[in-house]
Write a structure and sequence with these properties.
Layout lengths: L8 H10 L4 E5 L5 H11 L6 E6 L16 E5 L4 H12 L4 E3 L2 E4 L2 E4 L4 E4 L2 E3 L3 H12 L5 E2 H8 L8 H15 L8 E4 L3 E4 L12
Parallel strand pairs: 1-2, 2-3
Antiparallel strand pairs: 4-5, 5-6, 6-7, 7-8, 9-11, 10-11
Protein backbone atom coordinates (compact mmCIF):
# COMPACT_ATOMS: atom_id res chain seq x y z
CA UNK A 1 0.00 0.00 0.00
CA UNK A 2 1.43 3.39 -1.04
CA UNK A 3 0.45 6.53 0.90
CA UNK A 4 0.35 10.04 -0.58
CA UNK A 5 -0.11 13.06 1.70
CA UNK A 6 -1.71 16.37 0.76
CA UNK A 7 -1.68 19.73 2.55
CA UNK A 8 -4.90 21.12 1.08
CA UNK A 9 -8.29 19.88 -0.10
CA UNK A 10 -7.55 20.77 -3.74
CA UNK A 11 -4.20 19.00 -3.65
CA UNK A 12 -5.78 15.97 -2.00
CA UNK A 13 -8.54 15.81 -4.59
CA UNK A 14 -6.03 16.01 -7.46
CA UNK A 15 -3.88 13.24 -5.96
CA UNK A 16 -6.84 10.93 -5.30
CA UNK A 17 -8.29 11.32 -8.80
CA UNK A 18 -5.01 11.19 -10.72
CA UNK A 19 -3.66 8.20 -8.79
CA UNK A 20 -6.96 6.26 -8.97
CA UNK A 21 -6.77 5.78 -5.20
CA UNK A 22 -8.83 3.07 -3.51
CA UNK A 23 -8.79 4.56 0.02
CA UNK A 24 -8.91 8.24 1.01
CA UNK A 25 -8.38 9.35 4.61
CA UNK A 26 -10.00 12.75 5.24
CA UNK A 27 -9.62 14.71 8.49
CA UNK A 28 -13.03 16.29 9.10
CA UNK A 29 -11.48 19.07 11.23
CA UNK A 30 -9.44 20.49 8.37
CA UNK A 31 -10.68 23.49 6.33
CA UNK A 32 -12.62 22.47 3.20
CA UNK A 33 -12.89 18.86 4.36
CA UNK A 34 -16.63 19.02 3.69
CA UNK A 35 -15.97 20.25 0.13
CA UNK A 36 -13.45 17.45 -0.45
CA UNK A 37 -15.89 14.77 0.70
CA UNK A 38 -18.64 16.19 -1.50
CA UNK A 39 -16.31 16.35 -4.52
CA UNK A 40 -15.08 12.78 -4.03
CA UNK A 41 -18.59 11.38 -3.61
CA UNK A 42 -19.73 13.01 -6.84
CA UNK A 43 -16.60 12.42 -8.91
CA UNK A 44 -15.23 8.99 -8.06
CA UNK A 45 -17.04 5.80 -9.14
CA UNK A 46 -18.96 4.15 -6.32
CA UNK A 47 -16.94 0.95 -6.67
CA UNK A 48 -13.63 2.78 -7.06
CA UNK A 49 -13.04 4.61 -3.78
CA UNK A 50 -13.74 4.10 -0.10
CA UNK A 51 -13.46 7.13 2.18
CA UNK A 52 -12.30 6.99 5.79
CA UNK A 53 -13.37 10.09 7.73
CA UNK A 54 -11.33 10.96 10.82
CA UNK A 55 -13.56 12.82 13.28
CA UNK A 56 -14.25 13.31 16.98
CA UNK A 57 -17.76 11.89 16.49
CA UNK A 58 -20.24 11.28 13.69
CA UNK A 59 -21.84 14.72 14.11
CA UNK A 60 -18.58 16.39 13.05
CA UNK A 61 -18.88 14.94 9.56
CA UNK A 62 -22.32 15.23 7.91
CA UNK A 63 -21.32 13.05 4.95
CA UNK A 64 -21.14 10.03 7.22
CA UNK A 65 -24.76 9.53 6.20
CA UNK A 66 -23.33 7.82 3.11
CA UNK A 67 -22.12 4.95 5.31
CA UNK A 68 -25.24 2.92 4.55
CA UNK A 69 -23.97 2.76 0.96
CA UNK A 70 -20.56 1.59 2.13
CA UNK A 71 -18.76 4.68 0.84
CA UNK A 72 -17.80 6.69 3.94
CA UNK A 73 -16.62 5.09 7.18
CA UNK A 74 -15.73 6.85 10.41
CA UNK A 75 -12.57 6.49 12.45
CA UNK A 76 -12.89 8.29 15.77
CA UNK A 77 -10.14 10.35 17.34
CA UNK A 78 -8.18 10.53 19.54
CA UNK A 79 -6.16 7.78 17.89
CA UNK A 80 -2.39 7.46 18.00
CA UNK A 81 -0.46 7.02 14.69
CA UNK A 82 0.09 3.31 15.25
CA UNK A 83 -3.62 2.77 15.92
CA UNK A 84 -4.58 4.79 12.85
CA UNK A 85 -2.24 2.79 10.62
CA UNK A 86 -3.60 -0.45 12.07
CA UNK A 87 -7.16 0.68 11.33
CA UNK A 88 -6.32 1.54 7.72
CA UNK A 89 -4.51 -1.75 7.15
CA UNK A 90 -7.33 -3.69 8.75
CA UNK A 91 -9.86 -1.97 6.54
CA UNK A 92 -7.78 -2.49 3.38
CA UNK A 93 -7.50 -6.17 4.18
CA UNK A 94 -11.29 -6.49 4.22
CA UNK A 95 -12.08 -4.65 1.00
CA UNK A 96 -14.24 -6.55 -1.43
CA UNK A 97 -12.40 -7.95 -4.44
CA UNK A 98 -14.27 -9.19 -7.48
CA UNK A 99 -13.14 -10.90 -10.65
CA UNK A 100 -14.46 -13.35 -13.21
CA UNK A 101 -14.24 -16.20 -10.71
CA UNK A 102 -16.12 -14.71 -7.81
CA UNK A 103 -16.02 -12.48 -4.75
CA UNK A 104 -13.74 -12.05 -1.76
CA UNK A 105 -14.66 -10.22 1.43
CA UNK A 106 -12.55 -10.37 4.60
CA UNK A 107 -11.69 -14.09 4.92
CA UNK A 108 -14.68 -15.27 2.85
CA UNK A 109 -14.19 -16.38 -0.75
CA UNK A 110 -17.10 -17.17 -3.06
CA UNK A 111 -16.59 -18.87 -6.43
CA UNK A 112 -19.61 -18.06 -8.59
CA UNK A 113 -18.85 -20.50 -11.42
CA UNK A 114 -18.14 -23.47 -9.14
CA UNK A 115 -20.78 -22.36 -6.60
CA UNK A 116 -18.40 -22.95 -3.72
CA UNK A 117 -17.66 -20.88 -0.62
CA UNK A 118 -14.70 -20.92 1.76
CA UNK A 119 -14.03 -19.14 5.01
CA UNK A 120 -10.29 -19.13 5.54
CA UNK A 121 -9.44 -22.66 4.33
CA UNK A 122 -12.73 -24.23 5.39
CA UNK A 123 -15.25 -25.02 2.66
CA UNK A 124 -18.84 -24.23 3.61
CA UNK A 125 -21.73 -26.51 2.67
CA UNK A 126 -24.44 -24.04 1.69
CA UNK A 127 -27.84 -24.60 0.14
CA UNK A 128 -28.63 -22.83 -3.12
CA UNK A 129 -30.63 -20.16 -1.29
CA UNK A 130 -27.87 -19.57 1.26
CA UNK A 131 -25.31 -19.26 -1.55
CA UNK A 132 -27.42 -16.64 -3.34
CA UNK A 133 -28.02 -14.70 -0.12
CA UNK A 134 -24.30 -14.57 0.63
CA UNK A 135 -23.43 -13.60 -2.96
CA UNK A 136 -25.95 -10.76 -2.82
CA UNK A 137 -24.52 -9.43 0.44
CA UNK A 138 -20.91 -9.78 -0.79
CA UNK A 139 -21.56 -7.81 -3.98
CA UNK A 140 -22.34 -4.68 -1.95
CA UNK A 141 -20.76 -4.82 1.51
CA UNK A 142 -22.19 -2.27 3.91
CA UNK A 143 -25.48 -1.94 2.04
CA UNK A 144 -28.55 -2.89 4.06
CA UNK A 145 -30.76 -5.16 1.96
CA UNK A 146 -34.44 -5.37 2.84
CA UNK A 147 -35.90 -8.83 3.24
CA UNK A 148 -38.00 -8.29 0.11
CA UNK A 149 -34.95 -7.39 -1.96
CA UNK A 150 -33.14 -10.49 -0.69
CA UNK A 151 -36.12 -12.62 -1.70
CA UNK A 152 -35.99 -11.11 -5.19
CA UNK A 153 -32.28 -11.92 -5.48
CA UNK A 154 -32.12 -15.38 -3.89
CA UNK A 155 -35.40 -17.13 -4.73
CA UNK A 156 -36.79 -18.10 -8.15
CA UNK A 157 -39.19 -15.53 -9.65
CA UNK A 158 -42.87 -16.05 -9.01
CA UNK A 159 -42.36 -18.04 -5.81
CA UNK A 160 -44.15 -16.69 -2.73
CA UNK A 161 -41.77 -16.41 0.22
CA UNK A 162 -42.73 -15.07 3.62
CA UNK A 163 -40.23 -12.48 4.82
CA UNK A 164 -39.76 -14.49 8.02
CA UNK A 165 -38.33 -17.29 5.88
CA UNK A 166 -35.40 -14.98 5.09
CA UNK A 167 -34.61 -14.84 8.82
CA UNK A 168 -34.39 -18.63 8.95
CA UNK A 169 -32.02 -18.89 5.99
CA UNK A 170 -29.84 -16.03 7.24
CA UNK A 171 -29.66 -17.83 10.58
CA UNK A 172 -28.45 -21.01 8.84
CA UNK A 173 -25.92 -18.99 6.80
CA UNK A 174 -24.67 -17.19 9.90
CA UNK A 175 -24.12 -20.49 11.73
CA UNK A 176 -22.16 -21.87 8.77
CA UNK A 177 -19.95 -18.77 8.65
CA UNK A 178 -19.21 -18.77 12.39
CA UNK A 179 -19.08 -22.54 13.04
CA UNK A 180 -15.41 -22.41 14.09
CA UNK A 181 -15.66 -19.26 16.17
CA UNK A 182 -15.05 -16.76 13.36
CA UNK A 183 -16.40 -13.18 13.75
CA UNK A 184 -20.01 -12.69 12.64
CA UNK A 185 -19.95 -10.23 9.71
CA UNK A 186 -23.72 -10.27 9.05
CA UNK A 187 -25.52 -7.35 10.70
CA UNK A 188 -29.24 -7.51 11.42
CA UNK A 189 -31.21 -4.28 10.99
CA UNK A 190 -34.29 -4.86 13.10
CA UNK A 191 -37.52 -4.54 11.17
CA UNK A 192 -35.77 -4.13 7.81
CA UNK A 193 -33.09 -6.56 6.70
CA UNK A 194 -29.41 -7.49 6.68
CA UNK A 195 -25.97 -6.22 5.68
CA UNK A 196 -22.49 -7.67 5.40
CA UNK A 197 -20.33 -5.39 7.51
CA UNK A 198 -16.64 -4.83 7.93
CA UNK A 199 -15.20 -5.20 11.40
CA UNK A 200 -15.48 -2.00 13.46
CA UNK A 201 -12.65 0.44 12.77
CA UNK A 202 -13.07 2.36 16.02
CA UNK A 203 -9.86 0.88 17.43
CA UNK A 204 -7.44 1.52 20.24
CA UNK A 205 -8.28 5.06 21.23
CA UNK A 206 -5.53 7.03 22.90
CA UNK A 207 -6.56 7.12 26.59
CA UNK A 208 -5.03 10.58 26.96
Amino acid sequence: MTAICATSANEGFDHIVSQASVIALVDCQLPEADWLLEALLHTMPEEGLTILALSADDRACPHLGHRQKGRVHSIHRPLDPAGLLKAIRRFAGQMRVSDRNGLVFADIKLDIAARKVWRQRRELRLTGIEFELLATLMREPGRVFSRKSLIAQAWPPGVFVDTRTVNVHIGHLRRQLTAHGEPDLIRTVRGYGYALDRIDLDLERDPS
